[in-house]
TrEMBL record:
The keyword Lipoprotein applies. PANTHER family: OUTER MEMBRANE PROTEIN SLP. Residues 1-21 form the signal peptide. The lineage of its organism: Bacteria, Pseudomonadati, Pseudomonadota, Gammaproteobacteria, Lysobacterales. It comes from Rhodanobacter hydrolyticus. Keywords: Lipoprotein, Signal. InterPro entries: OMP_Slp (IPR004658). Pfam families: Slp (PF03843). This is Slp family lipoprotein.
Length: 167
């Protein structure tokens, strides 16, 4: 195969794969922090008032008189800002929502991405262990559907042997 043909073929394949990935749901503002919740919990003064886009799994919702709190087990996010659960958790945080958050809209275990501003930390508990939770005043949040979590991930695999797949 000639080098020009090989280059065109490779470019076409890469372009096709890139077209499969959905775009990010939130615009990344200049100065958006790349720190994880664990890093912020460790040195909160270093990250005061920073903007973050974090994702993870909903642990629970707590409604208070004037706001609601969504506890999230954080995971790294992909280029579309979906949580990547295979990458290992990167701490916990509390997303603060003005007003009432319907718990049925944020079911336990649901994938979520939030965009917001850091607002300090709070000491709490995870089981019997003390834990420092970064607080995020969320401007926007998105609970991902199973279809959205699968989109952009081609259902193609390569291997040798016999297999059966059931969906």
């Amino acid at each position: 195969m000639r080098p020009v043909t090989r280059t065109l073929l490779l470019s076409s394949v890469l372009l096709g794969l890139a077209a499969c990935a959905p775009p990010p749901i939130y615009k990344i503002a200049p100065g958006t922090l790349a720190a994880t919740p664990a890093q912020v919990a460790h040195t909160p003064e270093q990250f005061a008032q920073g903007q973050v886009i974090w994702g993870g799994r909903v642990v629970g919702v707590r409604n208070l008189p004037d706001h609601s709190e969504i506890e999230v087990l954080a995971y790294p996010i992909d280029s579309s800002q979906r949580p990547r659960f295979g990458a290992g958790a990167s701490g916990r945080f509390i997303a603060i929502v003005p007003g009432y958050a319907e718990p049925m809209n944020y079911p336990g275990g649901a994938p979520i991405t939030v965009d917001g501003q850091l607002g300090g930390t709070r000491v709490g508990k995870v089981g019997q262990a003390d834990y420092v939770f970064p607080l995020v005043k969320i401007a926007q949040s998105h609970v991902w559907t199973p279809d959205e979590m699968r989109s952009g991930h081609p259902n193609v695999s390569f291997g040798v042997g016999v297999g059966v797949g059931i969906r």
